[in-house]
Design a protein that fits this description.
With 247 residues, the protein is an alpha/beta fold. The chain has two domains: 70 residues, 60s Ribosomal Protein L30, Chain: A; 163 residues, SPOUT methyltransferase, trefoil knot domain (Alpha/beta knot, 3-Layer(aba) Sandwich). Helices cover 35% and strands 21% of the residues. It has a seven-stranded parallel beta sheet, sandwiched between helices. Strands 1-4-2-3 form a four-stranded mixed beta sheet, with helices on both faces. β2, α2 and β3 form a beta-alpha-beta unit. α5 packs parallel to α9. The termini are far apart.
Length: 247
Amino acid sequence: MSEVIYGRNPVRAALQAGRSLNRIFIADGVSRQDVGDILELARKQGVVYQFTDRRQLDGLTDGRHQGIVATVAGQQYAELADILASARRSESPPFLVLLDGIQDPHNLGAIIRTADAVRVDGVVIPRRNAAGLTAASVKASAGTSAHVPVARVANLNNAMQTLREEGVWLMGLASDGPSLFNRVDYTVPIALVIGGEGKGLRPLVQRNCDEVVRLPIAGHVDSLNVSVAAALVLYEVFRQRMGIGDG
């Protein structure tokens, strides 16, 4: 599902053209000086790059990669402003999902799949240190990523501030949240903010939430898989908005 660009000039040209690159792979042993301009462009655009074994690059190409390979998303990202504008035209209050550093593309895809099922207006992810719309995440979404707009932002906290200024309530999900997830009102304009695997919400992101909720845990583990936890809260939002089980 994802396109591969390889060779120094093609990768450089893709960055200069502003194409949405998921990740750049550079073979171990390549001098940083030789690809310095490419790394600088990547840093400015928030594109993740990593040095890795040359054999990984060989497996992605026909071997003529000059020590550098970039992967491109199978579909283009949306703009946060466009997601908000579309949400405002909907019959229901805006409903967004913000993901704070989901690393596993399968978790990202699973969350997008649930988001489609419960009528989420859009998903927002950071450009750095997070999974993007790769072949794996698109496949895990079972094709629903084509129907749920995904925005990729340089700074998640700035995106949260934009949403707050637009009247969207920022609801974080964390194990230490003071409120149970099903004891709050989700019928208002809302953005559910979900942390990454293992670490959860970053401290600043959690502090920037208007409210933080938790899931009750009674077993031998202290947390659920992030895509499962997200699904439980997303369906509670959906249940309240549809009036299922009320009265």
